[in-house]
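## retry 2 of 3
previous attempt timed out at serialization; input unchanged, resubmitting
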Amino acid sequence: MTKIISILVSAMGRSVRRRVKEVTCDLSPSMMLIAAEVFYNAHVVNDRFHVQQVYNEAVDEIRIDIRRQLIAEENNRDKSEPPVTCSNGETMRQILARSKHTLMMSQNRWADIQRHRVNILFKYYPILKAAYSLAVELRKIFNSKISPTKAMGRMNKWYEKVMALGNNNFRSVIKTFRNHAPTILNYFRRRATNASAEAFNSKVKIFRSQMRGVRDRDFFIFRLVKLYA
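## retry succeeded, writing output
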């Protein structure tokens, strides 16, 4: 961390760093400390997509727990009996396995087969329906063009609903919002994200994997500049 701070300080003068108004980053405490130290006049913002990812991961953990429990029950079932299928022709175990990405998507992006699958899932497991509804609500809050003060009110109500679920999988979500509430709310000042940086980082990773690693770093950077600059 100290090395990164020294590199940034040497690369940019104090007058330049003083003019920076906002820095977006993930939920890494070290990155937030670096941003606050180097850009001392800027608001540190936790990127909304990283915040949503924490919640989505908690929802997926519920799905995984249910599937594990179902697998354990099936292992004790009489194997001579055929598995029970639902109205879409899939077993509940298959539905749970195939719903992972669907539960991360908005409802308006679901295909008919996905909607049918999720409706069955929500019917048998209301906890997943409640958790998904809160994911939709969180997305709506972030999509709303409101002030940080109004966002805080809506976030507090949302947070209380998450607490009311009483599911242990949401401990990381609760901890995140307790520790980073101010920097999460800073998003509503200018609605800035680091989506473009994340997209570029993804391109670099894909390019590096295609090259099967990097031997000549200078030539690798040269090729990146030619391709993406």
